[in-house]
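User: I'm putting together a small comparison set for a docking exercise, and I want a reference complex before I start. The sequence is below, and the ligand is zinc ion. Could you produce the 3D structure with the ligand included, as structure tokens?
Assistant: Of course. I'll restate your input first, then give the structure tokens for the complex.
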Amino acid sequence: MELEPFVFRHDGVLIASRERGGDAELNREVSRFALRELREEEFAVFTLDLCNNQVDKHHSRFPEGELEKIGRMVPGRPLMERHDVRGSLPRGMFFRSRLHRDGDTLSVRPDVYVLRTEENHDFILNIEGGVYRETSIGFSFGLPECSVCKKDMRTCDHVPGQSYSGERCHYVMRDVLEVIEGSVVSSGSQGTGFVAQARALPLVDALSAARDSFHAPVEVWSAGIWNR
Ligand SMILES: [Zn+2]
């Protein structure tokens, strides 16, 4: 049986807005995505803490090799405003990414630029003012691996977050296929009033849907005889 890619949304956080100056590379790197060289005052740059190698609150974890792959996939992906009812136009663009190590934690930290247009004025102000600080990124995977039995999580019965022989079950996300888009949302607003623009679901719902389709009974009709 061929399994569909496993698609879900992952929460991240905005950690910094870039200070002016002191980054000679910045204009050149941003301009790789623009049709002309942009002046520094024409855009704002923000850094996101996208995902890392620790087990998160949704009981998922990225192996380090996949984090490197994600880092390479992020530049060129759009940044959306999640509560924009018009919904489809990107607010910004991821233009570079690096891996950041802090003790045992390895994180993917991409930078995104947002043009300082009149339309983006409030969006930028909301980020700079700390109102928009949570992010949500859509990923797809070939293999959500169970940490207990090492099988595809969609095919086993282990429950993420539960303990088995003293080991807490989590997903290991392998075979990253795609980084779909990133969204910025206001604090504490996850999942409210948002019309889905991507096919990605929150992790728990994505697993539940994937398991349901995998375990859906196969209907077999056969001519039976009722009298016994
Ligand atoms: Zn399992």
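The CA atoms of residues 3 and 142 lie 8 Å apart. The chain has four helices and twelve strands.
User: Thanks, that's exactly what I needed.
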